[in-house]
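Hey, can you fold this one?
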Amino acid sequence: MEDFLFTVSKLFWLFARPNTFALFLVCLGVGLLIARRRFGRWPALLGLGWYVAVLLTPLAAWITLPLENRFPRPELPTRVDGVVILGGAVEQALTEARGIPALNGAAERMTEAVALARLRPEARIVFTGGSAALAPGQMSEADVARALFASLGLEGERVIFEGRSRNTWENAELTHAQVNPTPGETWLLVTSASHMPRSMGTFRRAGWDITAWPVNYSTRPGGAGWFDPPFSFRLGQAEWAAREYVGLLAYWLLGRTSALFPAP
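Sure. Predicted structure:
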């Protein structure tokens, strides 16, 4: 069942992602208009409307802010027993091709792991990530993370890698089973701020008593700088936020999260 749901989710998002679907609507509408079907103007206008809204309004920031503000970052606890870093920040295929660890826009997840390891030397550092691809390559995210952390001096028995998970639900379940945290321990969950609501809901459902430690913010509160990022960035930002809302709904329907929109 897990394999089926994973495949369905990947195929669904391949076509349903807003930027791709909007482009499909534009092409469909233009094709219908060329064929002298006047109703083609509606899908064309709807698709163009998505791009115009992202270009001329702070839509991307508006839908991202509630996600990023949901779990404020707390003061660093005096004692930390463990830190869980979610995958999604490394590029396996590029790492294989070039031979050095490659990171993407969520790189703060990895740098924060190193910073927390130095600030709290008693903490276990747990990276969780296999491959989110339908056809995975030879390297898992955990393989890339192991090489990166070693190059930064973060290695040894305190560093643990989980390399089988394909999504956030499996991150939570498989890592909980591997680490087996005990009641009373203090654990931090490191992931992108916009991904934190779904992650916290999922980890709670899996039995974790864990504290949100968000990184990789893409918005500033109060409306400052909403139009500063280029149009291409805002398209990606809006699409990522839409993906999180869809993921929250899907996980809630599947019983994989503790609430529809988890809160502190």
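The first helix runs from residue 2 to 16. Let me know if you want another pass with a different chain boundary.
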